[in-house]
């Protein structure tokens, strides 16, 4: 249902993303070659053999740690324009790479943070809705952290980073993750002080 929502509400945002890709040399190449990310196109064992700290190694470590497979992305069904259909398919398939670049886990706090980043980057209504309604599933303490640390960081990161739809990730797996993040202008994830727990408790006891 989330995939359907993304397809049925994102037409104008997808056109803007396509325009951004067509205006960028790497984006143009991606639209031309239409690479896919799944276990048939990406050799995960080869990524596991890359040095620690490289983007590819950290990506496959993230997959293993979170018990995730790149084969879990649903195919596009409700977009007739072939190029726009590829754009949203590409977005779906690089979502886990966003998690790796942003240093976010797959728990609800991490997903809401990534969705806010994606909302700023892509303008997709589905991402904005995920960032707004996802926190309803969080505890009050988690919502406090999200509101005061993670959401402000995700918004700043979304605006400061280069357009991540214009990155040919498959050609950059061998690069050190930190160097790639610096090139893409992705800031380090927010550092939530341990004292926030006691601050939260004092605040809500008043």
Automatic annotation (TrEMBL):
Membrane-topology annotation of the record: Peripheral membrane protein
Pathway involvement of the protein, from the record: Cofactor biosynthesis; ubiquinone biosynthesis
Family, similarity comment: Belongs to the COQ4 family.
Keyword Lyase: yes
GO molecular function: 4-hydroxy-3-methoxy-5-polyprenylbenzoate decarboxylase activity; zinc ion binding
Protein name per its UniProtKB record: Ubiquinone biosynthesis protein COQ4 homolog, mitochondrial
Assembly notes: Component of a multi-subunit COQ enzyme complex.
First-tier enzyme category under EC: lyase
PANTHER family, per database record: UBIQUINONE BIOSYNTHESIS PROTEIN, UBIQUINONE BIOSYNTHESIS PROTEIN COQ4 HOMOLOG, MITOCHONDRIAL
Species whose genome carries this gene: Branchiostoma belcheri
Bias kind Polar residues: ranges: 193-206
GO cellular component assignments: extrinsic component of mitochondrial inner membrane
EC number assigned by the record: 4.1.1.130
Region (Disordered): 184-206
């Amino acid at each position: 249902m989330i995939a359907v929502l993304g397809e049925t509400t994102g037409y104008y945002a997808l056109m803007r993303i396509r325009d951004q890709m067509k205006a960028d040399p790497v984006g143009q190449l991606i639209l031309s070659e239409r690479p896919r990310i799944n276990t048939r196109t990406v050799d995960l064992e080869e990524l596991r053999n890359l040095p620690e700290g490289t983007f590819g190694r950290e990506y496959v470590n993230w997959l293993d740690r979170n018990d995730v497979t790149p084969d879990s992305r649903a195919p596009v069904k409700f977009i007739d324009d072939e190029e726009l259909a590829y754009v949203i398919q590409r977005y779906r398939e690089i979502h886990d790479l966003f998690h790796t670049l942003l240093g976010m886990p797959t728990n609800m706090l991490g997903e809401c943070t990534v969705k806010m980043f994606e909302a700023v980057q892509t303008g997709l209504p589905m991402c904005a809705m995920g960032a707004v309604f996802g926190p309803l599933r969080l505890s009050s303490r988690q919502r406090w952290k999200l509101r005061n640390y993670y959401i402000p960081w995700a918004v700043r990161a979304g605006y400061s980073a280069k357009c991540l739809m214009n990155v040919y990730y498959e050609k950059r797996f061998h690069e050190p993750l930190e160097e790639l993040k610096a090139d893409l202008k992705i800031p380090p994830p927010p550092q939530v002080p341990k004292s926030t727990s006691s601050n939260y408790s004092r605040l809500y006891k008043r």
